Each structure stands twice: as C-alpha cells, then as structure tokens.
Structure prediction request, 180 residues.
Amino acid sequence: MELSAPAVEFEKAVRQGAEPRATALAICTRLGIPRAEAESRLRAADALFTESGPGSEPDLALFLDTGHVFVVDRPLDERETEIRDLLVRATGAMGRVPSGLAHSLGRWWRTGELTRAFLVLARREQVRGDAGAYWSALAAAGELLLGSAGDGVGEAGKGGDESVVTAWEKCRTSAASHTP
Prediction:
C-alpha cells in the first residue's frame, strides 16, 4: 500500500528523531484537523507510540494512514451528499465488500473523492449481492457526476470526463440487464 503524503512526512520526521505522537499531532493540525479531533484520533495509537523504537517508523506510519488519522474530512454539498449516498447504497448491494476496497471507499467518501469511488465501483465485473440495485445506484450516481438533467449525456457529453461517461454507460447497460 502506498502511504499518503502526510504519512510519508510522519515516517521521515520520526526516522530523523522526532517524537512520534507530537509529530502526528503537528501534521494533523497543519492539515486543518482541529486539535481536539486530532487528539481523539491519536488516542488509538497511544500504546504504539509508547512501545515504538528505532525501525518502527514504517509500521507507525502505516497504522496512522490506514487508521485515517491524517484524513481531512471535506464537507459535501447537497449534490455530493446524494452521490455519496448512492455510492453507499451500491456498496451495500454488493453483498461482500473486500476489506481493502471498503477501506479505500471510506476514505474517499470522507475526502469527497466521489468520482474516484464511482470509477472503482463501476469497474467491478461481478456482484454477489443484488446486482440490479448495485448497477441502478451506480447509474444514478454517474448521472449526477456528469451533471445530467435527464438528457442522457449531460455536460460530460460536451467535453467532460470520458472515463466517467464510459463507466456511466456501462452502469446503465448493466442496470438494464439486471432489472426485471
């Protein structure tokens, strides 16, 4: 797993002798995470900070990164909230969600990387749960991502992101083939 930039910064600073907890707290606050929230996030790692020694920097950085300690939550507007809710609905319809995918999706929903989440979900070939609900929710999310007003193409058809257009078309076709 590739570490986020703040986790890499943390690892480098601690490897150079910086105190781990103080370094993590400083990075969080520099990112704009309120101090009280950063302290709360770091409590889960207190035992690791206490027991860490030379050579443990990569493990600490990975733990903090996978624990979303450095994630800056981005407020979503009404449209983005609707898109996120559709992506969550699609994920719920999948049946079994691989842990790595669930981890990534959780981060992307928090950071507002909705297009990225949509594209990853749209690439799936097999759905073990309710395929009709999965593809229908993704088709609706894709339409919102494209800014469509029901005309089938929206702004993306006028020069927008072709990867989103292609994924949306796949989702629409898959939804139609799984709807009775």
Q: What stands out?
A: Confidence is low (pLDDT under 50) at residues 149-159. The longest helix spans residues 78-93.
